[in-house]
Amino acid sequence: MWLALYRRRRMLVALLLGMVAFEALIVVVAGALAPQELFSAGGKGPPGAYQAFSGSSGSVSIASYPGLLGAGLTHPFWIAMQLTAIGSLAAAAVAADVESGTVELVMVRPVSRARLLAERTAALMLAALALNLAATLTVAAGVALSPDVHRAVPIGGVFAAGVMGLGFALCLIGPAMAVSAAGRRRAQVIGATIAIGAVGFAVNFIALAWSPAAPLRFLSPFHYYTPGDALAEGGILWPQLGILVGAGALGTLLAHVLLRRRDLAP
């Protein structure tokens, strides 16, 4: 577990610094300009499809403090940093060792397949926890220092949104580990991780923008990851969090089943 983190320490440090800098920028923008000023043109409010960018199921507009801060927790830059950490560490869990032919050396120690996958999954969860904690603490500090934002966004809501972010990461970690456990190329894992994140966001956006496609929103993790709602309500959205964590747990369980039954020869 520690070796997996150590090998990617520079990447993780860069991602953490990038996360802090980006969320600090979002908080500064929120404190300097009212959201209504940013998202108003000709007296009209933002389109309904912008709910996808505010991390809301429909009750929170991006032209509000919870919506604007929620946008910082669903922005493509935030998603890219999450996908980078998850894709890199998940690919290294099994598929990279199979591709390079080193997995047999790892197993000779001996290290059981269950221990290998469990510890590398734990390393990935720690990386996801660090990224979401960095974002949460940065937003919480900014909210606490801005009276106008603090009146609209309780600190409890910030930490609730952080927990939802971790749930979203777990939802991606499970399938990514399953692909790594079954795959033979790291590119397969990275591609699958990016597909889940990017396609999931696109599906949710289309479902919100085009009413005939509305039922498709249930297939996207972004329908359940709604930090804007958590920021506005000041609490964790337990049903949505349960679905996110449940999907991640099922993916991790599938990864153990696949790894136990597969041939590890390159």
From TrEMBL:
GO CC annotation, single: plasma membrane
Pfam family, one: ABC2_membrane_2
Keywords: Membrane, Transmembrane, Transmembrane helix
Domain of life per record: Bacteria
UniProt entry tagged with the keyword Transmembrane helix: yes
GO terms of molecular function: ABC-type transporter activity
Keyword Transmembrane helix: yes
Positions of transmembrane segments: 12-34, 117-143, 155-177, 189-210, 236-259
Name of the protein this chain belongs to: Uncharacterized protein
Organism: Streptomyces katrae
